């Protein structure tokens, strides 16, 4: 039987707190988004390097500054995902914030690619 959840009644709405005092999130909830964000960054970095390599076979094309900026941006986001993982594992009380941050890195990575495409990437 599971432990009943603590609920508070404020007069207008019933509030159920997300966390009870002293309870931390499990570490696997942090590993999944951090590893996904890191792997996505590595995949984009490899793809950017492949695009740069293949575009310079005969003559180097224009727009390589944009692809290099995307690769640098993803290096930063890969480092942030590792830092979030380390911080969440080292400080269990920060785990919920670290999980939310790690899940937000993935849309930010996708947004970087979309902005590059809209601004004038090939």
User: What fraction of residues sit in β-strands?
Assistant: under 5%
Structural class: mainly alpha
SSE order, one letter for each helix or strand? EEHHH
- The tally of domains stands at 1
Shape: elongated
Provide a count of the helices: 3
CA-atom Rg in angstroms:
21 Å
Low-confidence residue ranges = none
Q: How does the major sheet shape up?
A: 2 strands, antiparallel
Considering DSSP H and I runs of 4 or more, what fraction of the residues is helical? 55-70%
What value does the average pLDDT take? 79
Order of the strands making up the biggest sheet:
1-2
- How many beta strands in the DSSP annotation? 2
Q: Distance between the terminal alpha carbons, to the nearest Å?
A: 57 Å
Describe this structure in words.
The chain has 122 residues and is mainly alpha-helical. The chain has one domain (24-119). 66% of the residues lie in helices and 3% in strands. The protein has a two-stranded antiparallel ribbon with strand order 1-2. Helix 1 (28-55) runs antiparallel to helix 2, helix 1 (28-55) packs parallel to helix 3 and helix 2 (64-90) runs antiparallel to helix 3. The N and C termini lie far apart (57 Å).
In short:
By secondary structure, this protein is mainly alpha-helical. The protein has three helices and two strands, in the order ββααα. The model has no long low-confidence stretch (mean pLDDT 79).
């Amino acid at each position: 039987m599971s432990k009943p959840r603590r609920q508070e009644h404020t007069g207008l709405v019933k509030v159920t707190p997300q966390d009870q005092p002293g309870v931390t999130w499990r570490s696997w909830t942090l590993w999944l988004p951090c590893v996904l964000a890191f792997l996505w960054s590595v995949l984009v970095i490899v793809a950017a390097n492949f695009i740069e390599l293949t575009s310079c076979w005969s003559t180097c094309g224009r727009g390589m500054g944009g692809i290099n900026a995307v690769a640098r941006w993803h290096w930063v986001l890969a480092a942030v995902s590792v830092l979030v993982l380390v911080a969440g594992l080292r400080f269990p009380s920060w785990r919920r914030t670290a999980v939310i941050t790690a899940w937000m890195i993935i849309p930010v990575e996708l947004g970087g690619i979309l902005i590059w495409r809209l601004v004038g990437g090939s």
